[in-house]
Design goal:
Blueprint (H helix, E strand, L loop, with lengths): L13 H5 L23 E9 L10 E5 L26 E5 L5 E7 L4 E2 L5 E2 L2 E7 L7 E7 L3 H5 L2 H4 L10 E4 L4 E3 L2 E2 L12
Parallel strand pairs: 1-10, 1-11, 8-9
Antiparallel strand pairs: 1-4, 2-3, 2-7, 5-6, 7-8, 9-10
């Protein structure tokens, strides 16, 4: 039986191929997911990607995937007929970090989606992070600080040690802006999940 191809660090075409906007070319998606016609509460997510020393990671790429404001994914597998599909919202976005490790997304606050055991998951955004020197991308989630009741009953969030849960919660600031920093290592390391 053939063996799986070994993982390698991301090569020189990582940024050019995945975030071509930086080079004046059109990409498949960007960091603006919601427009004026998108249903739901318009929000901004902003943060930084930091290494174990607290230094900015200036060449990371963040991808997000989320449900719309009603709690439905724009994907053929989600056949929630009772929840309207918002055709102005794909739910998928991508952003490269700047020289200070910053990233941001304009989106809508997602609705609750079904989870294990027919329970509802708290509103959340799934995140994939890729960067130089990482053999494999990482998976994490972003929950919202103003969804305390829903967060308390979320089975995925509950599976994380209580002292580490705050690394998964974006804090609401002024206006509809949420702050979410991703720490790759160190004392404040973000909780990462296995695929």
């Amino acid at each position: 039986m053939a063996k799986q191809t070994a993982s390698q660090t991301i090569g020189p075409y990582f940024s050019y191929g995945l975030t071509p906007e930086e080079y004046g070319r059109a990409g498949i998606c960007g960091n603006v997911l919601a427009g004026a016609d998108t249903k739901g509460e318009a929000i901004k997510i902003e943060g930084r990607v930091l290494d174990g020393e607290g230094n900015p990671v200036n060449d990371a790429m963040i991808e997000i995937w989320q449900a719309n404001a009603g709690g439905r994914y724009n994907h053929p597998v989600d056949t929630s007929a009772d929840i309207e599909l918002d055709h102005t919202f794909s739910g998928f976005g991508r952003c490269a970090t700047d020289p200070d490790g910053r990233f941001w997304f304009d989106t809508v606050k997602p609705g609750a989606v079904p989870g294990p055991g027919n329970t509802l998951q708290a509103p959340h955004i799934s995140i994939i992070l890729m960067a130089r020197g990482m053999l494999l991308h990482t998976f994490t989630r972003l929950y919202f600080s103003d969804e305390e009741s829903a967060n308390a009953s979320d089975t995925v969030l509950d599976s994380v040690e209580a002292s580490r849960r705050p690394t998964l919660v974006a804090v609401r600031g002024d206006g509809p802006t949420y702050r979410f920093d991703i720490h790759l290592q160190g004392e404040d390391e973000t909780v990462f999940f296995e695929a």
